[in-house]
UniProtKB/TrEMBL annotation:
One of its GO terms (molecular function) is galactoside 2-alpha-L-fucosyltransferase activity. One of its GO terms (biological process) is carbohydrate metabolic process. It comes from the Eukaryota. This is L-Fucosyltransferase. One of its GO terms (cellular component) is Golgi cisterna membrane. Keywords: Glycoprotein, Glycosyltransferase, Golgi apparatus, Signal-anchor, Transferase, Transmembrane. Its main location: Golgi. Coiled coil: none annotated. It comes from Adineta steineri.
Amino acid sequence: EELRQRIFVALQSVLEKVSNFFIQFYRRKRGYRPQFLLENHQSFKRQLAQLNSTTWIGIHVRRSDFIGLSYSSSDAYLFDAIKYYTARYPNAHFIVTSDDKPYCKKLFRKQSNILLTPGAYSVGDDLVILSLCQHSIITGGTFGWWAAYLAGGEVIHDKIYPSGCSRREYYYPPWFLIDGNVRAYKNTEYILR
């Protein structure tokens, strides 16, 4: 935990930007506007965790280049992971970041407890917001790996993702799997129109 605190520090301007995401959520969904002291990244994360009304779970969905490589995680994997966390944490809310936000917007459009980061957010903003979550769901790639590592907590990863090395070398030991289906070939069944 101490290593995480030392290697990743968000800029004050990014913390302010990201804090507005949470403030707007609480104002709209819970009817109050929390006051956050934005001293630093870790203190903001602790303040979020103390708001017991919500357990934040970050989801990173990598798709753009992975579709052509047939490494893109299935929708079933994502929904199974969401189902797991929803059963475990009845107050679960999910924050989705992705390199294909239009796809995710269509995929999760009927889920009231799933929020997408704004299109104006940079990759850095997305990393900061995922790192503030208490738990994570990741698809393939190093971005999701780092987001989950920085967030801490429980991490679900797609077990079939070919990492190019042994599973023990790639996935952090406390992380666990659910039986997801990585496409063995390009499957248009999962492309939402």
